[in-house]
Amino acid sequence: xxxxxxxxxSTKTMGVLTVGGLVAVTxxxxxxxxxxxxxxxxxxxGLLTLGMVATSTG
Length: 58
Fold this sequence. Notes:
- The protein contains 2 helices and no strands.
- It has helices at residues 6-32, 36-57.
- Helix 1 (6-32) packs antiparallel against helix 2 (36-57).
- The longest helix is centred in the N-terminal third of the chain and has 27 residues, at 6-32.
C-alpha cells in the first residue's frame, strides 16, 4: 500500500502492544493486586514505543 512503510507498521504494532499491555496490567492489578515488576515492564515498553514514534516521525 502506498504511504505505509515497515517502520510505520512496526510503530503501530508497538502502540497496540503498549495499549494491550496497559489493559492487561491494569486488569491484573484490579484482580490480584499490584505487581511493581509488571508496571515497570509496561513503563519500559511505553518508553520504547515513544522512542519509535519519535524516530519514525522525525
